[in-house]
Amino acid sequence: MAEEVKPTKVIDARGSFCPGPLMELIKGYKQAKVGDVISLYSSDNGTKVDAPAWIKKSGNELIGVYDRDGYVEIVLKKVR
Amino acid sequence: MAEKMSLLLVSGTSDKLMAGAIIASGAVANDMEVDIFVSFWGLMQFKKNGSGKMTLSYDGKGMEQEVMKKMMEKKIPSFMDMLRQAKEVGNVKVYGCAMFADLMDLKKEDLDPIIDEIIGVGKFVAMAKDSKMTLFI
């Protein structure tokens, strides 16, 4: 696992189902500033595929996808 | 200019309305603007003070209880809440069908405020014509 970056913002969407976590991520992203590191927690399996795809497509930096205990943590850096 | 998606919702069963709301969410996640035209049984579900009762289309006959139970357990939001969230994230407009509204004597104030406007099919088709994709759900 790569060295982990400390997030400036954590979005806890555990317990929410597709498309909830992705929508929460986009809402949080819109409120964030360029340079912010956002961490999304999700217990929904679709998010593991959807969120990284959205992060790349939106031109942001995917820092990592980490399997945690019963959920997945997806970390991105807002670059635009 | 942002790409557009048009959705046509006619059915009033929860599964189809939910599919529409989920696809609209996927569209805004892809930076698309969404125009949703709602008619017939779909529009009936947008009436204020509606029953909010969940129903499944014919494909789901016999599975209602199982599906409803899971949805309650997992606290799946209603299609209306999903649409509200999609509206918060992106540019989603919901239009009521003027023909059906006239038929049932429904005014805009009889419908949930999520309905932006009541429009005729001509205007919807004009929107669909300019959109990248149109789905009938």
On the 0 to 100 scale, the average pLDDT of chain A is 93
Please estimate the helix content of chain B.
Answer: 40-55%
Instruction: Please report the distance between the alpha carbons of the first and last residues of chain A.
Output: 26 Å
Oligomer: heterodimer
Question: Greatest contact pair?
Answer: A-B, 14 and 16 residues
- What Rg of chain B is obtained from the alpha carbons, in whole angstroms? 15 Å
Counted by DSSP, the helix tally of chain B is: 6
Work out the helix count of chain A. 2
Q: How would the global form of chain B be characterised?
A: globular
Strand content of chain B: 15-25%
Give the strand tally of chain B: 5
Distance between the termini of chain B: 26 Å
The helix-and-strand class of chain B reads alpha/beta
Mean pLDDT of chain B: 94
Number of strands of chain A: 4
Q: What spatial order of strands do you see in the largest sheet of chain B?
A: 4-3-2-1-5
